[in-house]
Amino acid sequence: YPSEFLVQKITEENQIPVHLHVSVSLQYVAGLKGSALVEFFHGNIAEVENEELRHLMWSSVLFYKAPNVEVMACVLLSTKAIYFLLDDSFVHADEHQSDFWNKESSDCENSSFHLSCCFVLKLNDLQSVNVGLFDQYFRVTGHSADHIVTCLTRDSYNTHTFIQQLMAVLSLLARTPSPEPVDKDFYSEFGSKTTGKMENYELIHSSRVKFIYPNEEEIGDLAFLVAEKMDGLTNLPSLNILLYVLAFQVNHVEGSAQNTSLLQPKTLILTSSDLFLFDEDYISYPLPEFAKEPPKRDKYQLADGRRIRDLDRVLMGYQTYPQALTFVFDDVQNQDLMQNLTVDHFGE
């Protein structure tokens, strides 16, 4: 029986982000309040009788096996596992992943009975948690490719709260202690002898789950990548990344109803001179230990980039969070930012 404070907190967290659409089954879950929500968890989701629901969060998620399909999920953290209650549109969106999801519910499709897939990652199987840049997302990794999930919270507060709750729950797990570490010298502890590069900042929890945070080099690599896209016109030491945020690009289609396909996930990066939109791979990097080959695409792929000096005006919507911004750029004829001028261009 959870405390009244916990029930109230979980009820407050049970809100679907207004800009994302979900299926009827998840709308039903979002309508549950108080003890009804806890009873729903124990009656339909929990795998053992004595586990407690500790935290609830609505987030977009990505699976390692289906990296191109971002799906809305209700993420439930208990004292035994992380449950991802998925929008049922996901199962039909990625047909070639039929081995990933056992479709046993096809006979129920025409009835008024709504089913959701629930993906379970047991805490005992959890090996590491990678936190993304500026806490915009995090990735939980289990022991195989089936057990890698990224939560695109697009919100540092939600990420921070979930990580704190996860650490608290992991502290309750009874795991055999790690062997005593061998004394290391300074260089072996803080650097890699093979590359000479500093490793990402790692925090090893008492449950032996690694929490991995990005270090300063990741920002440096990103700044270098951005400078490359700017045709080397900018002095790299003076290039500062002012803002990194996961957002959606809104594509207006004339005469169509508003739906989720119009929201294209993008990474927005603002520097002192330019505004960039990237398609970022949030699920494949850093490479899992069992990966046999690098991912098929780069971590960052440039989608669009404009100079700030060409920005004419910014239109702000009046709706509540999340805010919509429209950037209006001058139609410059000699737009040199995106030109790929190679030596062949000046040849015969």
Automatic annotation (TrEMBL):
Cellular-component GO terms for this entry: endosome membrane
Keywords of the record: Cytoplasm
Every Nischarin C-terminal PH domain range: 241-347
Domain PLEKHM2 PH: start-end pairs: 114-178
Main location: cytoplasm
Pfam families referenced in this protein's UniProt entry, alphabetically: PH_NISCH_C, PH_PLEKHM2
Cellular localization per UniProt: Cytoplasm
Molecular function terms, GO-annotated: kinesin binding
GO biological process per UniProt: Golgi organization; lysosome localization; regulation of protein localization
Keyword Cytoplasm: yes
Protein name: NISCH protein
Lineage: Eukaryota, Metazoa, Chordata, Craniata, Vertebrata
Name of the gene encoding the protein in the UniProt record: Nisch_1
